[in-house]
Amino acid sequence: MSAPPLDSPVPPDEPPAPGRRGTRIALPVALALLALPLITAAHHSRPVPYGDHLTVHARVTDTASGPAGEPGLRMRGPAVEAYDTESGGLRWTYTRAGRRPVTLLPAPGHAFTLWSDGFVTDTARADGGSVRWHRAIPAAADWLRTPGARGGAGVLQPLTPGARMLAVVTPHRIAAYRTADGDLRWVLPARPGCAFEPARSVRRGEALLIAQPCAGPTAPWTAQVVAVDDYGRIVPGRTPLGNGDLGRAPGGDRGPEN
User: Fold this and answer.
1) Residues 174 and 212 in one domain
2) Per-residue pLDDT for 154 more than 90?
3) Is residue 97 part of a domain?
4) What share of the chain in percent tops pLDDT 70?
5) Is pLDDT above 80 for 221?
6) CATH code at 117?
7) Same domain, 159 and 224
8) Over the stretch 4-38, which tens digit does the pLDDT of each residue have?
9) Could you give phi then psi for residue 41, rounded to 5 degrees?
10) pLDDT tens string 164-203
11) What predicted TM-score, i.e. pTM, was given to this entire model?
12) What are φ and ψ of residue 150, in 5° steps?
């Protein structure tokens, strides 16, 4: 068969067959569907903030109530556990990747935990529904590994009934946090040449007395003990900083609260 003349008109492009058109449309859709599991997997594989892993084992309504209607708390290995005080069954478990709990302070509605990396956390005690806040304590992680830390004894101290305010005591400072939101309310540094000893503390009424031994034989004994409450260091004529719950109106006979 001879080739057509060079000046012969070129026939127009033929429209694609119906099967080919469907293939062109289906290919991008299939690729998008294949990518969805990869996108979802990438989303779920993102690291959890602070390495938290909170597991709820039983609904609160399905378990018996403890003395205060809240579970008991304990540390077991790398976990903080909440358990029913009658049946012993677990309600929730809280762990942090690569960390372990050092000391635990139960309070109404709160489970305060000091961790080996120097973080303090507050977990919703009743149902384990959330970790309300995390606070990093400066220079605490290295100190907690020393014998002088005594396993974190006395580091977590409630400053008010019901633990509305929480003191975190380390050798270099005392920091007070409002437990409703973890807000830092005041900081009291140790005197130069002195250091707080959290394990050597005692409560007298509304005051928390904490040992602050100082180097040198001339340090007066009055410099080696401090007294604090939810407003800070107790000294004559102080003007207290309000530390009340959010939204609370000013009032009370101990100074203004906000």
Assistant:
1) yes
2) yes
3) yes
4) 69
5) no
6) 2.40.10.480
7) yes
8) 554 545 455 555 555 555 555 555 555 455 554 44
9) -65, -40
10) 999 999 999 999 999 999 999 999 999 988 999 999 999 9
11) 0.73
12) 50, 45
Q: Which residues span the domain enclosing 223?
A: 154-239
How many domains would you assign to the chain?
2
Pair of tokens at residue 118? 């120097």
| Contact status, residue 96 vs residue 115, Cβ threshold 8 Å | yes
84 burial class (0-12, 13-18, 19+ CB within 10 angstroms)?
buried
Alpha carbon distances (Å) from 23 to 13, 18, 30, 110, 189: 19, 9, 10, 60, 72
